[in-house]
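User: Okay, second chain of the day. Same drill as before: sequence in, structure tokens out.
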Amino acid sequence: MSNTERIYSLLAKLNPRWVAALEKRLRAIPAVAQEINNETQSLTAELETSLRPYKDSFPTFTTLPAQGRPRQEILAEMQALRDLEEARWKDGFVSGAVYHGDYAHIDFLSQAYAIHSQANPLHSDIWPSINKYEAEIVSMTAQMLGASAVQDGQVCGTVTSGGTESILLAMKTYRDWAREHKGTTHPEMVLPVTAHAAFDKAAQYFQIKPVRIPVDSQFKADLVAARKAISHNTVVVVGSAPSFPHGAIDPIAELSDLARQHGIGFHTDACLGGFLLPWAEKLGYPVPSFDFRLPGVTSVSADTHKFGYAAKGTSVVLYRNLDLRHYQYYTAADWPGGLYFSPTFAGSRPGALSAACWAAMLSMGEQGYIDAARQILEAAAAIRKGIEVIPELRVLGDPLFVIAFTSDTLDIYQIMDRMTGLGWSLNGLHKPSCVHLCVTLRHAQPGVVERFLADLHSAVEETRQNPSVKTGMAPVYGMAASLPLRSVVSDFLKKYLDVLYKV
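Assistant: Same drill. Structure tokens below.
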């Protein structure tokens, strides 16, 4: 055992708050810092091949070519790259990522995008068509998520670039609302530990203190802990429908009522489930209330580019009333460049994405969404049942379409890595160590469920017979799951990102 490993073993036994206090001092010790650097450099080097597979097979450009390349040559190269990447998601080997994927649907969205490729909603006077599309996207999404239950009919929102921006905007909105209405200068958000990482990003960007609460045995937010966590500085309480890691729907009714009693906002993060859960409910699945039908819910985020089947790069953030939405907006009334205003973070935006989103929603219609939900939920149920009969595996919680599973006897990350070797791309998770598959229409294709379960059986058996063989990402996930020094993991992730930008 190395000196660093001995330190890690000792720290793992300590209170996490003590570890955080000791971490900075330990990393200042040259020998420890050097060994940590050696370990992360070694892992990063191993990943370079998988992260940069085209380095030797396609030309690399570090400066502009002296003369422009022929357009057909460029398109042919791009087509070749696409062909190399397409098979995995097309054949249903990927968790989430591509939610529809039918060629006719893709071509339709591409045509809609091309029609409006020059549109920029920043210039609303030049492209009022994009205003029409976005207003209708917001309205259709709001009605799907219970807007008709709000008596004054003021549910409103904006189109954003994705779930992260929807969440960031909502948290910025609550911070600013509380500052003006309550004089809050040290804002806090109360959120389950399973809430999406975008909330932590919002906390960093907007100086909001995250107050994290635990989850119960079913991976749902702990109500007793939530009640204790709310203080006079709390500006918003958060719940997921469902959570990204385990597919669990938090007790939104109880959490939002708690927020309402304290006169603060409640945000439902339905980025993942917003365009699936309403149709699951119509199909008779047990979906607890999570939207504006609950009087305490004051905002909801829902991703159109997931189960809304729009092109990547759109989401919707909704608010219970117009006054709240005003705290999201940015306006500049005294800039020498004229009057400047934007509803979201971006100034210029690709109006073509909003046009394609509008087209996707209209082409699907309610019945299309219901039919898609039926296929997905039936595939998910079969996958869950198949996992549950594998003795070495255990499904976490009571999921509908995000199936998280772990093993009490085998290294789950080795199983994940062996599934990767068989062509699958699953999501590795921490706390607890587990893996999940987010089921999409790609998995509802004939034969995909059967192939997944057969490969999973094979991966489990191989891991059982060769438990000491660790390759690929398994060591990385193992390190991240067990390492008590969290800044070391963060530094490794930054190096990972550095590799992505290497030429």
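Residues 132 and 355 are 9 Å apart (CA to CA).

User: Thanks, on to the next one.
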